[in-house]
Write a structure and sequence with these properties.
Chain lengths: 240, 240
């Protein structure tokens, strides 16, 4: 067997793992989209579909992780290929957790069913969901294109998601303080918002791995963020 | 250089990484202890110490991660040594996040300052904090002793943490519904409880890596847990 043969087998393995990561990313985005729809429409059928879909995502994640570890064990890759392997393991874990958050959001729609809607909250949740979906899409595109500029833009965008979350949190707090009958719905919707914010964190984590893969550097862990406890006017933020 | 020489250098590297992981675990436990004290005593000095300490934890985590990746690149370990390396990378990430959660709890104590105490909540938070501290200690001991029985006990214990969290969540909800003036303190304390619950999840993640390191199998991801949205009497849980 020639060296060339070995190398091209290695390249095939890398390409196959990369395709699995792309598919995982696509599954996570679909799950997120459906979960938020289920939540806003109080649609239990969509919610059930998201919950069932998470099993498939978990399975593909396990397969991809196993294939990646096998590659690591058999090929002992070095330099950029080793960073690829390490980045893929982290990215897989992030996407698996995104699927879990989507599942949590979908389940929450079942609990929300009987509770009234809080004016304006649905629209704010949809906007936040669109923003984190875009972050996920961009982080995956950055991974596939080895595009560190795009990755850094995702890391920057997380500040915006945190602000959206804080604004939603304060809105919910106001509803709850105005009328205790809003507390239950407010707490449920707060969990939905928190899960969206955590998907934003995961997209950021993926983007950081893209920078690591391409450059060997991990971006500064102290990401730009709003002051996590009080906004400039002294009101409480939910950021955590 | 003889094979023996190479092997003992390798063993030294492994031992050094293991010692760093033990130290990270100890730092995370101290941070957690201090953070909960800061929160209950509303002590801003302890809170500041936790925040400063998190920088040291992050630095050691980065150093340990780098040393582990270097070992992976230079020694191309296989079988149980490869699993050790992969487990260490995951465990480091879990401990770094535990430090972040402790920092969040400490910061929350600053926001709690002016708000009244909710009867019984401090004691429940302390009990929950003791439980997750024990989980962290046991998970680290299981790692150092390669003790899968102890690791599996940690995974089981997470169910208990989830129940404590749910009980605390319902208690806070009751206070908030009784009197809207409790809402702000209730929301802050809920974040503290949520961070403790997430430290429990991280201890569980460490325990899963111990099982992986020793056996090559990842324990079933579908951990035992309470039904996440309603308890048997139909009340809402905060579990997410």
């Amino acid at each position: 067997m020639s060296d060339k043969h070995i190398v091209s087998g290695f390249d095939r393995d890398l390409a196959s793992i990369e395709a699995s990561v792309a598919q995982l990313g696509s599954m996570a985005r679909d799950a997120l989209h459906d979960a938020v729809q289920a939540c806003i429409l109080r649609d239990t059928q969509i919610a059930a579909r998201v919950q069932a879909g998470d099993k498939a995502l978990d399975q593909l994640e396990t397969q991809t992780r196993m294939a990646t570890i096998k590659l690591l064990a058999l090929r002992a890759p070095s330099a950029v290929d080793l960073r690829f392997v390490l980045a893929v393991l982290e990215i897989c874990a992030h996407l698996e957790r995104c699927g879990d958050y989507a599942k949590n959001i979908a389940k929450r729609s079942l609990a929300l069913g009987p509770h009234g809607q809080l004016i304006g909250t649905d629209r704010a949740l949809l906007r936040m969901s669109d923003a984190v979906t875009q972050m996920l899409a961009d982080a995956l595109a950055a991974f596939l294109d080895r595009d560190t500029d795009k990755a850094r833009a995702v890391i920057e965008a997380d500040l915006d998601t945190d602000q959206r979350y804080n604004s939603l949190f304060r809105g919910l707090l106001t509803y709850m303080m105005e009328d205790p009958r809003n507390i239950t719905a407010g707490m449920h919707l707060h969990f939905v918002a928190k899960n969206l914010e955590r998907i934003g964190d995961r997209a950021t984590g993926i983007a950081e791995q893209v920078v690591y893969h391409v450059t060997g550097e991990i971006p500064d862990q102290e990401r730009p963020r709003e002051d996590p406890y009080t906004s400039p006017d002294g009101r409480m933020n939910g950021q955590n």
